Amino acid sequence: MSAPVKRTQWDEDPTLFRKDHGLSKKVLLNCCLVRWIISWASPNKKDSVEDELELSAVRHRPEALELLEAQTRFSRKELQILYRGFKNECPSGVVNEDTFKEIYAQFFPQGDASTYAHFLFNAFDTDHNGSVSFEDFVMGLSILLRGTVQEKLNWAFNLYDINKDGYITKEEMLDIIKSIYDMMGKCTYPILKEETPRQHVEIFFQKMDKNRDGVVTIDEFIDCCQNDENIMRSMQLFENVI
Amino acid sequence: MAAGVAAWLPFARAAAIGWMPVASAPMPPPPREMRRGQDGLIMLNVSGTRFQTWRNTLERYPDTLLGSTERDFFFHEETNEYFFDRDPDIFRHILNFYRTGKLHYPRHECISAYDEELAFFGIIPEIIGDCCYEEYKDRRRENTERIQDDEENENNNDLVLPELSFRESMWRAFENPHTSTMALVFYYVTGFFIAVSVMANVVETVPCSSGPNRAKEVSCGERYALAFFCLDTACVMIFTVEYLLRLIAAPSRYKFVKSVMSIIDVVAIMPYYIGLVMTDNEDVSGAFVTLRVFRVFRIFKFSRHSAGLRILGYTLKSCASELGFLLFSLTMAIIIFATVMFYAEKGSSATKFTSIPAAFWYTIVTMTTLGYGDMVPKTIMGKIFGSVCSLSGVLVIALPVPVIVSNFSRIYHQSQRAEKRRAQKKTRLARIRATKSGGANAYLQYKRNGMLADAEEEASKEAGQSLVCKINPTFETQHHHLLHCLEKTTGNRLETIPVLLGAGLPEKQPKLQSIWI
Q: Membrane spanning segments where (chain B) (predicted)?
């Protein structure tokens, strides 16, 4: 057997190796076997390094306070309070969909809030990168709590329009309504029947779809909501939440 | 709800705007906002160590000292801070509870000091987080046991017994020989007679020196038959009296008769009476001799006197499955090797391996590495298989034995711990149920009354002995309003509120194992 070689050379092409040192095939196989045994014994080396990189990349720092103050309608103090709560719950600075679903589900223990949480997540995640950062969160809240009625209705339309094509179809609405009914859970009075969500969708479309083309556009939606007193009044409901 | 999740309530309420356009009924009015002052920093001085936190953080738990107005008693005007003359190291954990919603138990702290601090600050130990709860309970139990032992040692010197009936006191004397001198005397006397009886059984089979005019040797039992008979009678008399006394004193006679110890007692004294009853009939004398073997069971009566024997018996019983497996695998190996050896040695002449059952003896002796040498293989194949047999015997026997030994200690400790955990689980479930029932009933109450102001009072009444600090009632009412909005959106009513097990910490998926109230 030749003198022991550096380990890095094993990564190179074994044929080169053989040519340079004139080793026999048998010895080469032994080396490969030994290498295989060593790599089998410590398989997680590469993975753990990758995992660590991934974890550290997830830390996110939000924009400066002044910038957020300019972009949203919250005061400095309110932003501070919001961020403290946000950071306490999500130390990494971003919320991914699963965490979002978990947090939202805790307010509705009786039912399954995961579908609605999914739609909500997509509505907040405006840049569609799979995670809600503090900026997304605060922008969304700014519209919901301090925005004009127009903006709120816009946001609601965006929520209902699942594929973001500018039209709400009956299927999209059915999904949304079903997810809301899911949040109620099983123990309701009266018991939830199969056709209740569908009926609800029909009522909604009868009200909103003015030209009866089977879809609701943003203008139809906003017009119709502005003419409905109940909806207008309920939009002002949560003004004092923060 | 964990305190942290309450921080997301404003977000959930804002997101409820998404329900508004599809609502089938008008929304309920929002709850009255109680404008608490500006959120400010509070300075807490604990024996010189300064802690600072937001006022809101402390007011998350209004049932505790720091969260309620009780802290005003500790306000120090000169320095404009709250001063507590307590341990700052333990206070750190208490303050972290307000911040994170989880109470941790530091392992290096003394359990009674920690308990005192918790009691002072009005925090119930049941809310210690899952990570530290087991440790806390273990330490607590050790501590209470230690205190109890100390008390018992003190009390044993000056016995002030309550008035027990004669029967009860007799049973107590039998169970705990240390309670009175009479019991102790009885304990030692029975122990002595058990030993004497067993010794007599052993000695009477020893061949005594025969007289010069006798042809063969006789055993001592035959030579001194009368003496041994009297000894046996005396022992059996004592045992019978003891058994009858125990039977009279037992609180549950049926249970006593079924117990193992009483069966051993009966088996120990039966042969004597049967022997008395039976006449010197030639036919039955053989059976009678066999019956005398049962007298050796008297040795098991010692287990009342030795705790170690009892533990051994119990662990053998609980390791029955492992022992059974060992026996089964041994049987398999014996049959295999006996068959192989028989057929290997079949060819050899004048072989001792006359049949497979005969080869069993060889296999057992070889596998347990006894090797008596009364049966040895002669053919080459026989010798090869014989060596394989002895090697595998070492493995088959040596491997499970340490497993069984470790099983002993594991099972023993486990059975103790299983009881502990079962009891803990019940109380924790009850605690969680009490909290959640307090919350859910509060919601239904709130809807019935349509009012918000009384919700927190009703909640605390209905939760009964609320074992856990309540969360901020403002958050409760806002959460209830949110649920009410959801009801109005769908047009259905929530009948019962299920309860989430595991207080909804955001790291884990909340277990959807809902229990209906």
A: 224-245, 257-278, 323-344, 356-372, 384-405
- Among A81, A112, A147, the domain boundary falls at A147
Is A41 in CB contact (< 8 Å) with chain B?
A: no
What CATH architecture is B167-209+217-304? Answer: Up-down Bundle (1.20)
If asked whether residues A106 and A174 sit together in one domain, one would say: no
Phi, psi for residue A11 in degrees, rounded to 5: -75, -20
Residues pairing with B76 in the sheet: B81
Asked if residue A51 is part of any domain, the answer here is no
Q: How far apart are CA B29 and CA A237, in angstroms?
A: 7
Q: Do the domain assignments include residue A183? A: yes
Instruction: Identify whether A20 is part of a domain.
Output: no
Q: In the CATH hierarchy, which fold is given to the domain comprising B310-423?
A: Helix Hairpins (1.10.287)
CB pairs under 8 A between A and B: 146
Contact assignment for B486 to A108 by CB distance below 8 Å: yes
Of A110, A137, A177, the CB nearest to B497: A110
As for how many domains chain A has, the answer is 2
What's the CATH number where A169 sits?
1.10.238.10
Q: Do B504 and A106 touch (CB under 8 A)?
A: yes
Write out the residue range of the structural domain in which residue A212 sits: 165-241
Q: Residues of A numbered 185-204 whose beta carbons fall under 8 angstroms of chain B's beta carbons: which are they? A: 185, 187-190, 192, 200, 203-204
| One-letter-per-residue 3-state SS of A8-64 | HHHHCCHHHHHHHHCCCHHHHHHHHHHHHHHHHHCCCHHHHHHHHHHHHHCCCCCCC
Indicate the residue of B7, B22, B489 with minimum beta-carbon distance to A85. Answer: B7
Print pLDDT tens along chain B (517 aa).
455 566 778 888 888 888 888 887 878 887 776 555 567 889 999 999 999 998 888 888 888 888 888 888 888 889 889 999 999 999 999 999 988 888 999 889 899 999 999 989 888 888 888 888 888 988 888 788 767 656 655 555 445 456 678 888 888 888 877 778 888 898 899 899 999 998 988 888 888 876 566 567 777 777 888 888 899 899 999 999 999 999 988 888 898 889 888 888 888 888 888 878 776 666 666 676 777 777 788 888 888 777 667 777 777 777 787 788 888 888 999 999 999 999 999 888 888 899 999 999 999 999 998 999 999 999 999 999 999 999 998 888 877 777 778 767 766 675 566 557 667 777 877 887 777 666 555 566 556 655 444 444 444 333 333 333 444 567 778 888 888 888 888 877 776 554 333 333 333 333 333 333 2
The C-alpha atoms of residue A46 and residue A35 are separated, in whole angstroms, by: 15
State in words which class domain B41-150 has. alpha beta
Domain match, A109 and A136 both: yes
In a domain? residue A160:
no
Of B4, B12, B493, the CB nearest to A188: B493
Q: Are B28 and B486 in contact (CB under 8 A)?
A: no
pTM: 0.49
What is the 3-class SS of B484-515, one letter each residue?
Answer: HHHHHHHCCEECCCCEEECCCCCCCCCEEEEE
CA distance A102 to chain B (A): 6
Of A107, A233, A235, the CB nearest to B479: A107
Which residues 93-132 of chain A have a CB within 8 Å of chain B? 99, 102-110, 120, 123
- Whether residues A237 and B30 touch (CB distance < 8 A) is answered with yes
User: What value of ipTM does the predicted structure carry?
Assistant: 0.71
In angstroms, the CA B1 to CA A102 distance is: 12
Residue of A nearest to B4 (CA): A89
